[in-house]
């Protein structure tokens, strides 16, 4: 029996988890949520798939892994998706949590969905190219995992994680300390909002409600931007001073 635990905002990590799960016998996919209870897992193979946020772990993933416990002496693999090739930084966190228990680790570069600050979502051309290459990478990873290959490809790019921790104002520490209040910066153009509820169903931590208009619950936001990216009329925007999604493209990979 195998389990893959995943967290995904706009679909990249979900696609990786789903495609890997299809290539592993007797594999169950389990979504990481904000309502995490400590459990003990004894499966022969366990996988963890998540995106890199601010050169580190999304807060919900960090919380899940801290509560994660495995009594299995089996195979543990971790796959981290990222939108830009130099976005590393999770190595230290994973080592602190798992020590040397990880059997296999690899980054996968996919279409970028983070378009706050000076970033913008990947163009359709870049998205299609990266996601096409991703399918080949997933196939190779699946072969290695099924053979129980041991590999930890952190790469020297994790230097970026070191830099952002040395200058926390610009990196992960700022994200992890302020992310739960970040949904206060989202706003809705009620003139073009259709009330389709896609933002509600797309939020991976159930942080949005619709009662005549869209409302954020101000408790579990991960700043994944799923609500912004999935909106069919582009009615949802994020603005925090000079940081904004206005005028930028959308990215969605739940297909």
From TrEMBL:
GO terms for molecular function: 4 iron, 4 sulfur cluster binding; metal ion binding. This is 4Fe-4S binding domain-containing protein. Keywords: 4Fe-4S, Electron transport, Iron, Iron-sulfur, Metal-binding, Repeat, Transport. It holds the Pfam family Fer4. Coiled coil: none annotated. Residues 184-213, 214-241 form the 4Fe-4S ferredoxin-type domain.
